[in-house]
Write a structure and sequence with these properties.
six-stranded parallel beta sheet, Rossmann fold, single chain, 2 domains, alpha/beta, 286 residues
Length: 286
């Protein structure tokens, strides 16, 4: 058998983590779930995120019994990891902004953190900065528009560099701009090239390689015998809302060797208007 990894995100940003896993791991079985019904997560409160994510992932993991769960979303990771780890027995890996390596790389003492508004304002992010980058200046910039642009780019829509310039203007107009930029959202590596065009010589770093190394270590620590042969491991993707955008993404998932691309079974996340972020699946026994 192959190791089975569940990767979760609000959208397709988690595919940047999948790309890092593909470069670091051997064959593995992949289940990818993205919650496009409540995309983007950067506009939800911490309490809303905890309710929504746990009620989607707890029943999923109970049903599939994967070896490992990856929260491939910086915004969700800063809010839900403790709750998930308290309810699951499998390792849960999160993604946090690469503040520490950025602080080590800067040559001018000024780094930038590009993330969602929620990640920018999370106390968890402030704690990371205080712990690893207290000796440098950290310029924070939050944008949900960039997240949407990354989503659209995978469906073939072109990216307007002028729009990116407008978003990054607070940094571009500075006499001394940050020389290292932390891509604090997993969507942003998907648009690394246009970001680089606008930011010039700034070094862009993300957490993909670090997450892959952590997963590699955890899989080894499970001491399970995994099959290694030429047979391809399965890849299945689920989304929480069927719409024009989700259907337009199917071609991209096929390019990444996904064999199934389906709506997440509605019984697992049906919700009422009174509790828009709570899944009845959280109360079910599987």
């Amino acid at each position: 058998m192959f190791p089975h990894i569940v990767v979760f995100d609000s959208g397709v940003g988690g595919l940047s983590i999948v790309q890092s896993l593909d470069q670091s791991l051997g064959p593995y079985q992949l289940t990818y779930l993205f919650d496009n019904e409540f995309f983007p997560y950067g506009e939800l409160s911490r309490e809303q995120l905890i309710l929504r994510v746990t009620h989607l992932l707890i029943p999923l993991c109970q049903r599939l019994n994967p070896d490992l769960l990856v929260i491939a979303c910086n915004t969700a990771s800063t809010a839900v990891l403790d709750s998930l780890r308290s309810q699951l027995t499998i390792p849960v890996v999160g993604v946090v902004p690469a503040i520490k390596p950025a602080a080590q790389l800067t040559k001018i003492g000024t780094i930038g953190l590009l993330a969602t508004p929620a990640t920018i304002h999370r106390t968890y992010t402030d704690a990371l900065i205080q712990k690893f980058a207290a000796h440098v200046q950290v310029l924070k910039l939050g944008s949900s528009q960039l997240v949407r642009m990354a989503e659209q780019s995978l469906t073939g829509e072109s990216i307007n560099l002028a729009d990116i310039e407008t978003i990054l203007q607070p940094w571009l107009e500075r006499s001394i701009a940050p020389d290292v930029i932390v891509l604090g959202c997993t969507h942003f590596p998907l648009i690394r090239e246009p970001l680089s065009q606008v930011l010039g010589s700034a070094v862009l770093i993300d957490s993909g390689e670090a997450v892959a190394r952590r997963i590699q270590f955890l899989l080894k620590s499970l001491h399970r015998h995994y099959q290694s042969n030429s047979i391809a491991a399965s890849r299945i993707a689920f989304y929480t809302k069927k719409n024009a955008h989700s259907e337009s993404l199917q071609a991209f998932f096929i390019k990444l060797n996904f064999t199934q691309f389906n709506p997440y079974p509605e019984v697992l996340f049906d919700h009422s208007q009174d509790e828009p972020l709570v899944s009845v699946a959280g109360t079910q026994t599987h």
